Amino acid sequence: AQSVTQPDIHITVSEGASLELRCNYSYGATPYLFWYVQSPGQGLQLLLKYFSGDTLVQGIKGFEAEFKRSQSSFNLRKPSVHWSDAAEYFCAVGPYNTDKLIFGTGTRLQVFP
Amino acid sequence: EAQVTQNPRYLITVTGKKLTVTCSQNMNHEYMSWYRQDPGLGLRQIYYSMNVEVTDKGDVPEGYKVSRKEKRNFPLILESPSPNQTSLYFCASSASVGRGNTEAFFGQGTRLTVV
After folding, report:
1. pLDDT in tens, B61-106
2. CB A96: neighbour CB atoms within 10 A?
3. For residue B71, what are the CA distances in angstroms to A112, B22, B23, B45, B61?
4. Which of A100, A101, B72, B83 is 20 to 30 A from A49, alpha carbon to alpha carbon?
5. How far apart are the first and last CA of chain A?
6. Do the beta carbons of residue A2 and residue A72 sit within 8 Å?
7. Using CB atoms within 10 A of its CB, is residue B13 exposed (0-12), middle (13-18) or buried (19+)?
8. What is the pLDDT of residues B8-31, one digit of tens each?
9. Residue A30 DSSP label
10. Considering CB atoms only, which of B41, B92, B100 is closest to A32?
11. Which one, of A107, A101, A104, A71, lies nearest residue A89 by Cα?
């Protein structure tokens, strides 16, 4: 069955530190992969997506993610975190034959000044 | 501005009292869906619609109904709400290509409490 695992429920970093949020997926073929961010009281906003081609994708707000087929991973990174990045982050996979999204359980990011 | 609009944002109701959460999108998207978000479970799809008059169950459809009479609207109906439906609900829309590689746009969410 298709699934997405985000192993870290909660991560705390200092402002200016680097960040990596982990995402592993289970899918029989190369999936379409997404990272969404949910700021407090807001809906979900797309950060970036991977469909094919270059395995390092750039997104908004200075985020990037790398698709690693051998590890079934799509980790999200940012070199220097800002206090405004505090939010919940969701990794999702879009199965090939549907418009449905399958979400991970999310990682809550807390940023200390 | 392209957007998905849900109403209400917050709702407290009593067990068994029918309610409707509205969802409207202005992007002429074919695909619309409802998700619920619960702590530790992420977002789970309740129902989806691939076009007008075409709806189908998602992963957690029990206790919910939907309709799609117009392309822009996709209301979620709880005919007899129960406390286990207390949750944060999101409506989403996307241009349907049936291949999973389109961006979904989300509403701001409806926080429902059933007492």
Report:
1. 999 999 999 999 999 999 999 999 999 999 999 886 666 567 889 9
2. 16
3. 44, 13, 11, 19, 21
4. B72
5. 41
6. no
7. middle
8. 999 999 999 999 999 999 999 999
9. P
10. B100
11. A107
